[in-house]
């Protein structure tokens, strides 16, 4: 059994660690609330632009490069959204695992994969393993803004528009010589973590470009005569300029906003994952302190018992010595 001094030093050390993990838990909890508020604040714009895109799509020919697979496509970009800081449990590992699965699937389909990363943890992960990263952006995983994410959003859009046969201009964060053209790609995939609840965050692989149009079939129920319609009426909208022109102008904004929404989701997921990890660490520290305290008490009791036994034994020996005299 360890001596009493060692046990007390260890209890002190664990309590110090517990204070740190508890503070991190409280900070992460407050950031979750802010991140959720930002996601909710972005919903009105997201809903409106989605409704506008649906109406434009129904009135247009859908003949746009962002809406169709390219013939002979052979180069795909993967954006891996990780965190800048650690202490978030399996948050980053799950994202890296999902990205590896997606990369394997694309390579088996004949695509050349080019990887982009956000977050210091992702940069360090791929650098340690000697895997190539075409571009990286850091410093905003916990608090993404429209400005800080501009370069990564703009590059993915420009790279897709350039196609694998063309090049796009250099931007901050790309791992190539400044001023040199950067080869484009034919697909864009994003691997990020979706926030479902405080306890559940799920890694997702999402194809950002080209957008896969969803065609819905609507059944119209007619009444007993041709003038009676049981369905709800819809407004007949005329677009100026024409729907195809508006669709071409709004699609980049729609895609850019969708990517920004993923950054917001990942931010909330990171905070929730860190809170769960720190709460688990705090609970484990409390349990460890309890166990160590029990062991320390047992050691202290054994020490006291031994001291009493020695005193009683010594007193008995003195009494026997006095009687013999």
Automatic annotation (TrEMBL):
Gene Ontology biological-process annotations: proton motive force-driven plasma membrane ATP synthesis
Gene Ontology molecular function, alphabetical: ATP binding; hydrolase activity; proton-transporting ATP synthase activity, rotational mechanism
SUPFAM superfamilies: ATP synthase (F1-ATPase), gamma subunit
Main location, first listed in the record: membrane
Pfam families tied to this protein: ATP-synt
Any one cellular-component term (Gene Ontology): plasma membrane
Membrane-topology annotation of the record: Peripheral membrane protein
Keyword terms, alphabetized: ATP synthesis, Cell membrane, CF(1), Hydrogen ion transport, Hydrolase, Ion transport, Membrane, Transport
Localization of this protein: Cell membrane; Membrane
Superkingdom as given in the UniProt entry: Bacteria
InterPro entries per record: ATP_synth_F1_ATPase_gsu, ATP_synth_F1_gsu, ATP_synth_F1_gsu_CS
Family, as annotated: Belongs to the ATPase gamma chain family.
Role summary: Produces ATP from ADP in the presence of a proton gradient across the membrane. The gamma chain is believed to be important in regulating ATPase activity and the flow of protons through the CF(0) complex.
Subunit field text: F-type ATPases have 2 components, CF(1) - the catalytic core - and CF(0) - the membrane proton channel. CF(1) has five subunits: alpha(3), beta(3), gamma(1), delta(1), epsilon(1). CF(0) has three main subunits: a, b and c.
HAMAP family per the UniProt record, alphabetical: ATP_synth_gamma_bact
UniProt-recorded name of the protein: ATP synthase gamma chain
Lineage: Bacteria, Bacillati, Actinomycetota, Actinomycetes, Mycobacteriales
């Amino acid at each position: 059994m360890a001596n009493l001094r060692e046990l007390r030093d260890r209890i002190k050390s664990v309590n110090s660690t517990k204070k740190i993990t508890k503070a991190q838990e409280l900070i992460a909890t407050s950031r979750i609330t802010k991140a959720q508020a930002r996601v909710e604040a972005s919903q009105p714009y997201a809903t409106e632009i989605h409704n506008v895109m649906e109406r434009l799509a129904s009135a247009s020919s859908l003949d746009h490069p962002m809406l169709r697979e390219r013939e002979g496509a052979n180069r795909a970009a993967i954006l891996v959204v990780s965190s800048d800081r650690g202490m978030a449990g399996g948050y980053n590992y799950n994202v890296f695992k999902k990205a590896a699965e997606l990369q394997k699937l694309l390579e088996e389909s004949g695509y050349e994969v080019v990887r982009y990363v956000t977050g210091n943890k992702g940069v360090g992960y791929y650098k340690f393993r000697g895997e190539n990263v075409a571009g990286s952006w850091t410093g905003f995983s916990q608090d993404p803004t429209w400005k800080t994410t501009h370069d990564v959003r703009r590059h993915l859009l420009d790279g897709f528009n350039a196609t694998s046969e063309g090049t796009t201009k250099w931007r901050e964060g790309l791992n190539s010589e400044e001023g040199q053209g950067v080869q484009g790609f034919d697909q864009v995939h994003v691997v990020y973590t979706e926030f479902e609840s405080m306890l559940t965050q799920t890694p997702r692989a999402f194809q950002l470009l080209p957008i896969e149009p969803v065609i819905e079939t609507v059944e119209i129920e007619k009444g007993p005569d041709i003038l009676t319609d049981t369905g709800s009426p819809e407004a007949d909208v005329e677009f100026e300029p024409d729907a195809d022109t508006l669709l071409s102008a709004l699609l980049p904004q729609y895609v850019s906003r969708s990517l920004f929404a993923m950054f917001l989701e990942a931010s909330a997921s990171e905070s929730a994952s860190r809170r769960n990890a720190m709460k688990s660490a705090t609970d484990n520290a409390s349990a460890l302190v309890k166990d160590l305290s029990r062991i320390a008490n047992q050691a202290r009791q054994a020490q006291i018992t031994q001291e009493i036994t020695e005193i009683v034994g010594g007193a008995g020996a003195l009494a026997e010595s006095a009687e013999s005299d």
